[in-house]
Structure formats: structure tokens, C-alpha cells
Amino acid sequence: MIDLNRRGLVFAAGSAITISAVGLPVLAATPGRKLGYAIVGLGGYGLGVIIPQFKNCQHSKLVALVSGDPVKAKRVAAEYGVPERSIYDYKNFDSIKDNPDIDIVYVCLPVSMHAEYTIRAAAAGKHVMCEKPMAVSSAECEAMIAACKKAGKKLMIGYRCHFEAYNLEAVRRARAGEIGKLRYFRSEHGFTTGNPNAWRLKKAMSGGGSLMDIGIYALNAARYMTGEEPIAVYAKETTDRNDPRFREVEDMIEFQLEFPSGVIGSCMSMYSANQNHVLLVGDKGRIDMEPGTRYDGNKLWVGQDRSNPITPPPGPGATQWAGQLDHLSLCIINNKEPIVAGEEGLRDIRIIEAVYRSAREQKRIALV
Amino acid sequence: MIDLNRRGLVFAAGSAITISAVGLPVLAATPGRKLGYAIVGLGGYGLGVIIPQFKNCQHSKLVALVSGDPVKAKRVAAEYGVPERSIYDYKNFDSIKDNPDIDIVYVCLPVSMHAEYTIRAAAAGKHVMCEKPMAVSSAECEAMIAACKKAGKKLMIGYRCHFEAYNLEAVRRARAGEIGKLRYFRSEHGFTTGNPNAWRLKKAMSGGGSLMDIGIYALNAARYMTGEEPIAVYAKETTDRNDPRFREVEDMIEFQLEFPSGVIGSCMSMYSANQNHVLLVGDKGRIDMEPGTRYDGNKLWVGQDRSNPITPPPGPGATQWAGQLDHLSLCIINNKEPIVAGEEGLRDIRIIEAVYRSAREQKRIALV
Hints:
Two copies of one chain form a homodimer.
Chain A: H1 2-11, H2 24-29, E1 35-40, H3 44-50, E2 60-66, H4 70-80, E3 87-88, E4 104-107, H5 114-123, E5 127-130, H6 138-151, E6 155-157, H7 165-175, E7 182-190, H8 203-206, H9 210-226, E8 232-238, E9 252-258, E10 264-270, E11 275-282, E12 285-289, E13 300-303, H10 320-334, H11 342-361, E14 365-366
Parallel strand pairs in A: 1-2, 1-4, 2-3, 4-5, 5-6, 7-10
Antiparallel strand pairs in A: 7-11, 8-9, 8-14, 9-10, 11-12, 12-13
């Protein structure tokens, strides 16, 4: 019981947000209650990844769908036992306010639509889980936070790694001093993107390229692994604008983060090569994860090299997504702030904006 | 026979220096001749590492010693069969000009003494092998190159990794296109330095901290692995000046290299943590070495991850040092330029100067 509480605390160290640990005492106190989620967007992530996870949840259930494709929505509703009256489209979305089954709206849409649907959901009196990146700009993030605050509703960003067993164990060991004084952090996140017509490659819908999509994992890991907030960034971008995939968004961007303690972070984001690596080096050893932030198959080594593979204790949920979904449900039940609230998403977007500016201006950007 | 020639060629690709491949045909043509080396400096590297390597050489032999410690010199001479008349100190060093046994002077001294002893050796009519880093400044490097040129003598810098089997195999595979189009390079090199009184930590003797000593491996690898010369650098330094080890020189410095093709290099140099890693990522896979540049025990993987460990074919010598020592001997015998001539050392020092300047001024420095 202590373990999960400690984890919640250590994981969010360095965050300015209110820290609310999800602990077994809370879980034990509310065994029967499940809050209802409406999934907005039946694309690859919402339909393929999130919806199948409700079966692993203790405090969350699927109760509604929002989609522009009525045939698909009807099929999914039938498969997952969602009543037809709880299927919405983007026109009648606001009428969710009249559906008491829906406690939480999970926004799984292209990034450009996050702000609109978060704000509309809050206005409809619903709590919101919004996928990362939070929005296409920090101004939008601020508007989302303000809207949820005004409505008195929780806002959480879908940072699944904060509920993933290997990452939790890595953070726990870093905070416990197992690798000594932290010296530097490094992460590469990239994959080879294919279809040039994907919405992720359209700047108006995605807000940016690999950094918004996959590099954000490196950035977020830099913050949770070190437990610090960067004070300056420097970035270099390489994009072949003749490549049809990269007419609008960046391919590859390398950014260096300066942390107040002197720890240096170095992160690579790519749409043209496959990498998934998280490394934290201290003066006594290192914490190494490769892959580090995948859906599954993550690996962790602690020590001088890879001779000591670690199998972490279970995370707070049966899966990282179950942990994530139930965390928001429990925060609502217990009136606590999520450990990855809107402020966490805003923080990443502000740094991402500075990274883009640094790459554009070829200079160091101090973060205020 | 083809293999070694090809290696010599591919390894030096991207260099502006004259390329001279060391091949078996040359070795076969001169089986009996061994050139004589004088080792200057009987410290850890000269005495502990280089001198024991002559037994592995085909074209090089130990014929003279230069040391400020006559007792030590006499003992080493006796052990390795060097005649007493071929023991010198720093005062009578220039009289090596009268010793026909000495073909090559190997300068294994603190960095601040490299220029003086290289120039004096050339003036004495000897070829020179000089340890890396070449000198404390690019101005000194230029003077060393000019002195050897004026004397009509070869100058080679002790870049042992250019003769190390794993690194040669890594370069060969990169040039052969095994990982596709190159995207980025990364290397960390560091170790935990101990004794605050070591000459390496005295700026007047070392010219700088971890970057001059160990980070230069990352920099040099960035150049030989990509086969490109950087066009700009950006660097961030972290040094605790209250640590007695780091009163004069830097501890940790992270530098980013921009290459003309768009490849991005990211290198970390440290005196406060142990790392030895070389990674080259392409759009079809990666070449991964960890450790990558050690005296022995290096490892190499090629592919998507570490599932495919590579055992490379033998390098050009029985060991990386034998390959290095014999390379200069053969270049002299065949009147070819070393693949790591003075110009190679100068190139690294110029980049190192730009890295230091970037860290100092917190801005991107273009390399001219």
C-alpha cells in the first residue's frame, strides 16, 4: 500500500502541480463504483488502444462513443455494449450534457481538435481526459485549463508512461539515489512514418511533426526521470522538404535541455528512423530503458551496463492504460488533482514551442 | 588483401587529407624491416600501454627511451633490451639526431608538451607519432605540422581507434549502406576521474578537461562514423567548480554537431560518470557499439536492436596499437601520408576550440 503512494509522490517530484497519489487504500474504499467514459474519435488510438482497455479497469467503463462515422460507431457500440442512444457525432456532441452516464470525455482526436472538444466537454459538465500533445499551442492549453477550471471539472492529459511499470520503477530508483548524483539524461524517440496523407503530417491538424507526436515522450521522460524542469533549450532540425512526408512538418529534431541542477538532457525526435531509448546517468551508475516507452516489451537495466535486467513490480493498473483511466476516475471520486493534469501538458507544449523557436532561430532559448 | 585496402579507403572518407591505404601487399613486400621508435614519456600510456605493444608489431621496434626519471628509464631499458646509450632525458633530447637507430619519436607526454617535443623531434630529423589530443591549441597544431613538413618528416596522431577492428567494421558497414541513409550519430565518453592532482586536471598541462582527454573519442568517432566534417557546433558545459577535481578544467560537456548532409551528431564528454558508447542511426537500422572505443572488450551490434552481435574480422595489426605503430612505419617505408596525419589532429582541436567557445558564449558556432 505504501509502495503505490510513494510512487505517486516520487513520480511527480519536480512538478508544480498538486500531487495526488493513487494508493491502494483509495482503491479499496471504492470497489464497486465505475465512472463512465465517452470516447471521442474512433481512430487508431481511441478504437484500437483505449476502448479495449476498459475490461482491465476497476473504476472506469465505456458508456458512450463520439464519431463522424455512424456505421463504425454502431458497430463498435454493439461490440462493447454501448447503447445506441449514447452514440454521438460532432454536431450533436454538446448534448452529452444530458447524458448522466457520461462522467468523463476522453478526447482521442487529431491535435488541432483537442482544445475545441475539451472546452465543449467541460461546458457540458464533463471531466476530460485529453490525449497528448495537449494542443497545437500553449495558448490553447491555457484556454483548456481555464475552461475546465471554470466548469469545476478535472482535466487530465493522456501521459500513459506515468502509469507504466518500467517507467515507475526507473523513477523510483532514480529518486532513491541508486545511481548517485544525476549527471545527464538522454532519450531518442522515433519511428519511420509512412503514409504522406496521415493527419499527423498535416500541420494544421497535428501542430507539428515528430516532436509533437513521438519526441514528446523523450521530453516528458526528461522531466519525470530527472524530476526537474528545464531552464533553457537548444535545438537543431533536419527535414528533407522534398520528401512528400515532410512538406509541412519536421522530420528530425535534436534538442538539448539545461536543468537547474546542472543535469544536461539530450533528446532526439524522428519520423525517419526507429528508436525508443531512455537513459539516465548518475555518478554511480545508470538507469537504461530500451525500449523504454512502448505499449509493451519495455526493458530496464540498472547499474554500470546491461548486465542487471530489472523486472519491475506491477504498476497501479493491470496495464498502463488501465492505470491511466482509473487514475482520473479516482481523482474525480476523491476530488484530487491528476498527477498529469492540464498543467503538465501545458508545460510540455511551452517547451516544445521553445524547441521549435530555437531550431528556427539557431539559438539558445531560455525558458521563463 | 582487398579488405584492408578498402578499409583504409572507407575509414578516411570525408577527410581532406591524402588517403593512403595500408594493405597486405605492402606488408608482404617488406617483411624484414622494422623501424625504430623512441618513446618519449614513461607515464601510464607510454610505459603501460605502448611499450608492451612492440612485441605485436611487424614493422616497428622499440629502440630508445626519453624520460626525466633515470632510474625508471634504466629499468625499462633493461626489461625491453634498449641499450643504455639510447636512454635520453629532456635536456639531451635533441642529441637523438645522432642516433641512427631512431626513425620515429612517439610523444607520450602531457598535452602541453606535445608541440615542443614534436617540433624538436622533427628538427632532429625524426618522424613523429604524437598522442592525442594533438596539442593545447590549433595554433600549436599548425606549428607542429609546419615543423614536420619543413623537416620532410611524417607526423601521425595516435588515433588508435582507426586501427581497431570493431570500429573499422562499423565504418565499413556504414559506408556499405547497411543501415540506409544516415540520420544521426550519438556518443557518450566519460569516466570518473579520481586524483585531483593528476596532470589531466591541470589546465596548463592538459589544455582542457574531459573533452580533451576522453570526449575527443566521441568527436573523432562522429567524424569517422559519418564520414563527414561538422559545419557548426553547440555546447553546454556543467562543472562543479567546488569539486577539487574541477577547479581548472571542465567536467561535463555536451555538444551537438551539424553535418552538411543533415546528419545530427550529439556527443557527451564527462569526468564524473562512466560511459563508452558509439551509435550511428540510419533510416534502415543502426550500428551500435558499447563499449565502443575501449582497449579491449568492445562490442558491436548492427540492425534494429542488439539482437545481432557482430564479431569483426581482424584489424590491420595484431592489436589496435600494433596496427597504429606499424601504419606509421609503413607510411615512412612507402612514403605515404598516414590516414591520421597532423591535419586530422588539427581538425579535432579546431572543433574542440569551437565547442569550448560555444559553451562559454552559449551560442551556435559555425565552423569555417
